[in-house]
Design a protein that fits this description.
Radius of gyration of chain B: 13 Å
Largest sheet of chain A: 5 strands, mixed
Oligomer: heterodimer
Number of strands of chain A: 9
Structural class of chain B: mainly beta
Helix content of chain A: under 10%
Strand order of the largest sheet of chain A: 1-9-8-3-4
Largest interface: A-B, 23 and 21 residues
Number of strands of chain B: 11
Distance between the termini of chain B: 37 Å
Order of helices and strands of chain A: EEEEEEEEE
Distance between the termini of chain A: 39 Å
Shape of chain B: globular
Chain lengths: ~110, ~110
């Protein structure tokens, strides 16, 4: 199973953009890149996912490197409600189960 | 749309006791997951069901943990007997099919004394 590497923690000022990096150098061609976040005392929630092309939704943008060995989650204007642990996860279509392997994630602190 | 429901929210037991957790997934979701999240770590998949069949239980400690999803809807996860290292949050999630967005419940926080 391919693994991801993320910084343990990051800080951002409120209303500033945030770029959360993720390295996945062993990614295979059929691996999807998912981002989830976990607010305090809650279960994780979906943020965004992609395969090869950059993706945008109402919550965030996902920029995927051309070689797919890294990706960046972009929060365009951080708010205090965005303070959470952000997980970058790979899931493979090969297995049929699309199993998620969570790492320890990046704890984002948003400063007022 | 109702989310994933779990109960109880908190449970405190003595080591060697038994405990069971219940999960009601989102209606129409065929895939159900149980995760264990130890403090400071990311969730770890214990078992994945597709309808009422198990598709992955490679990380489930089968000597003490069991799970079932008899009618392809609700699921229960049981620990018997519990150990101190089982103290964790147990998260249930569901998705329409494997590979689709997973929706997580609030979790059950288990403390084993």
């Amino acid at each position: 199973d391919a693994k991801t590497t993320q910084p343990n923690s990051m800080e951002s000022n409120e209303e500033e953009p945030v770029h959360l990096p993720c390295n996945h150098s062993t990614i295979s061609g059929t691996d999807y890149i998912h981002w989830y976040r976990q607010l305090p005392s809650q279960g994780p929630e979906y943020v965004i996912h992609g395969l090869t092309s950059n993706v945008n939704n109402r919550m965030a943008s996902l920029a995927i490197a051309e070689d797919r060995k890294s990706s960046t989650l972009i929060l365009h204007r951080a708010t205090l409600r965005d303070a959470a642990v952000y997980y970058c996860i790979l899931s493979s279509a090969d297995s049929g189960t699309y199993k998620y392997i969570f790492g320890t994630g990046t704890r984002l602190k948003v400063l007022a | 749309e109702a989310g994933v429901a779990q109960s109880p929210r908190y449970k405190i037991i003595e080591k060697r006791q038994s405990v069971a957790f219940w999960c009601n997934p989102i209606s129409g979701h065929a895939t159900l997951y149980w995760y264990q999240q130890i403090l400071g770590q990311g969730p770890k998949l214990l078992i994945q069901f597709q309808n009422n069949g198990v598709v992955d239980d490679s990380q489930l400690p089968k000597d003490r943990f069991s799970a079932e999803r008899l009618k392809g809807v609700d699921s229960t996860l049981k620990i018997q007997p519990a150990k101190l290292e089982d103290s964790a949050v147990y998260l249930c999630a569901s998705s329409f099919l494997p590979g689709y967005e997973q929706f997580f419940g609030p979790g059950t926080r288990l403390t084993v004394l």
